[in-house]
């Protein structure tokens, strides 16, 4: 899917996005639970970049957990960044945030961030070189020894295990407010518009983007999470 079409899709989904996926929130919450101790060693006043922030779910969680952190939230979808801003204002942490509507490369170069988050974003870059450049853009904005917490859909789609896990994953997704027709489109998109790669290949892409030793810290179904570090 071309970037403009992808942005238009997320613009359309933004108003009902959180409500649609509320029944699968346990997956997200488990990842956040495991993420907190990985980020707990950052400075009390850490500056954190949230890439592809969407409606701001991870931003809200981190802002509540770490009350002195400052954030820059980036998303190319205007409707998503508006929803994120509305959430931050309603929950009282907007004063610690700056909201940037645009792709990562449009974010001006500024002082390095202590950490970044990027959840379920890079999977939409089906060209490997573009995906490497995307992670390199994040690495370039982190201080030496800075951390990236990322997640993406990942699996060896050529393995027998995929034939077991994919139908179960689709049944789980059917718990959300997704029509059977939409589920079929999602399943087809996994082979066309979403780069579902083996986890070892995603880790290799992170390394090629400038991170060292990506460490897997989470898996739920097809979602895998890594914590990676910029060399000191």
TrEMBL record:
GO biological process: methylation
Keyword terms, alphabetized: Methyltransferase, Transferase
Regions crossing the membrane: none
Enzyme nomenclature, EC number: 2.1.1.-
The keyword Repressor belongs to this UniProt entry's keyword annotation: no
GO function term, MF aspect, one: methyltransferase activity
Protein name: tRNA (Cmo5U34)-methyltransferase
């Amino acid at each position: 899917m071309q970037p403009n079409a992808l942005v238009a899709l997320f613009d359309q989904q933004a108003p009902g996005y959180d409500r649609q996926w509320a029944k699968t929130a346990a997956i997200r919450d488990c990842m956040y639970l495991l993420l907190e101790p990985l980020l707990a060693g950052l400075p009390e006043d850490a500056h954190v970049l949230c890439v592809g922030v969407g409606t701001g779910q991870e931003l809200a969680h981190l802002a509540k957990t770490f009350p002195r952190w400052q954030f820059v939230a980036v998303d190319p979808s205007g409707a998503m960044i508006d929803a994120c801003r509305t959430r931050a204002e309603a929950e009282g942490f907007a004063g610690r945030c700056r909201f940037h509507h645009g792709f990562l490369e449009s974010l001006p170069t500024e002082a390095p961030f202590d950490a970044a988050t990027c959840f379920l974003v890079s999977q939409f870059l089906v060209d490997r070189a573009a995906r490497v450049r995307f992670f390199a853009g994040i690495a370039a904005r982190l201080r030496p020894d800075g951390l990236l917490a990322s997640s993406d859909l990942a699996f060896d789609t050529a393995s027998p295990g995929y034939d077991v896990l994919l139908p179960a994953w689709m049944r789980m997704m059917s718990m959300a407010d997704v029509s059977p027709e939409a589920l079929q489109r999602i399943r087809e998109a996994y082979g066309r518009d979403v780069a579902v790669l083996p986890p070892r290949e995603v880790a290799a892409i992170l390394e090629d983007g400038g991170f060292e030793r990506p460490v897997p810290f989470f898996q739920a179904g097809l979602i895998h999470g890594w914590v990676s570090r910029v060399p000191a």
